[in-house]
Amino acid sequence: ETNLIRENNGLPLLLGVMGDPILHSKSPAMHMAALQATGLQGSYLPFHVKRGDLRHAIQGIRALGFRGVNVTVPHKVEVMEYLDEIDEGARYIGAVNTIVNDEGRLKGYNTDGIGYIRSLKEEAVSDLSGRKVLVIGAGGAARGIIYALLLERPAQVIVANRTKESAMQLAAEWAHLGNITGCGLEQMGQYISGVDILINTTSVGMYPKINDIPLDSEMIPEGIVVSDLIYNPLQTEMLRQAQQKGCTIHNGFGMFVYQGAYAFEYWTGRPAPIEAMKSAVLASLG
Ligand code: ATR
């Protein structure tokens, strides 16, 4: 190819993802497709970085002139210690999944929550303002989603978690950001009536335990929006039950694509080629 765009002082644009495990990450296929569709010369590589090596791996971004990286499990929290600056959203969430290198100055972002919300708005509910939302789970994924959700001015967010205390704690911590209430899973029934959107952020229903469901399906109100962050399988038991009740269903596939799309836009300043990215991920899911 002769007309590839070179952005890194004439060198290829260097990108990658650090995690442990990393072998099955779909990010390299997705971002290589994005680079190609945009006409940028560059590479996005998977790096198997173990816990004790993270500090040095991050130093390596500067030394080698990487424009940016994604960080994934188990590094999203620890990596914050090694950055020069952290975006406000990522600071609230307490986790970074995207690093941008501006001439040696590393800034961390979290694109998971905003990626999820962009996907939810494009595929299921265009306007989240004034909606009542029930989120199951209060872990890392839930924090990202709830933070991004609160920016959309919902009427109320209820966080239901197996460990009730962490849901209560999160609701207290973010009370200044909106109307947020914490409860235990057994209290979900008290809050579910009038809910417009139900979101599962837990791993319940993930492969290989694909028949598990995070709530009694009888509790799901008819005709609402039901979303599961899981994308393996694409259709979880919760979504199957919801569909039978006339609900609009939404899975985590778009979240994965859009968290990558935001990262790509931060690194390159160009609009992410969404369709090319989706096709690459679908192909790699097999
Ligand atoms: P993630 O980054 O995927 O959110 P996490 O931070 O470990 O991972 O959070 C996992 C979430 O799934 C938590 O809300 C967890 O509930 P607890 O806080 O009680 O641990 C929830 N979870 C995991 N397994 C679950 C199960 N079998 N039933 C109900 N909730 C579960």
Structure notes:
The protein is of the alpha/beta class and 286 residues long. It folds into 2 domains: 13-110 and 255-285, 3-Layer(aba) Sandwich (Rossmann fold); 113-251, NAD(P)-binding Rossmann-like Domain (Rossmann fold, 3-Layer(aba) Sandwich). The protein has 10 helices and 12 strands. The chain has helices at 27-38, 54-64, 88-93, 112-123, 140-150, 164-173, 188-191, 237-244, 253-268, 274-285, and strands at 13-19, 42-48, 68-71, 85-86, 98-102, 105-109, 132-136, 156-161, 180-184, 197-200, 225-228, 248-250. The strands form 2 sheets. The protein has a 6-stranded mixed sheet with strand order 2-1-3-5-6-4, with helices on both faces. Strands 9-8-7-10-11-12 form a 6-stranded parallel sheet, with helices on both faces. Helix 1 links the parallel strand 1 (13-19) and strand 2 (42-48). Helix 1 packs antiparallel against helix 10. The protein starts with 12 loop residues before the first strand and ends with a helix. The mean pLDDT is 96. 2'-monophosphoadenosine-5'-diphosphate binds at residues 137-142, 161-163, 166, 201-204, 214.
Draw up the topology in text.
Blueprint: E1 13-19, H1 27-38, E2 42-48, H2 54-64, E3 68-71, E4 85-86, H3 88-93, E5 98-102, E6 105-109, H4 112-123, E7 132-136, H5 140-150, E8 156-161, H6 164-173, E9 180-184, H7 188-191, E10 197-200, E11 225-228, H8 237-244, E12 248-250, H9 253-268, H10 274-285
Parallel strand pairs: 1-2, 1-3, 4-6, 7-8, 7-10, 8-9, 10-11, 11-12
Antiparallel strand pairs: 3-5, 5-6
Helix pairs in contact: 1-10, 4-5, 4-9, 9-10
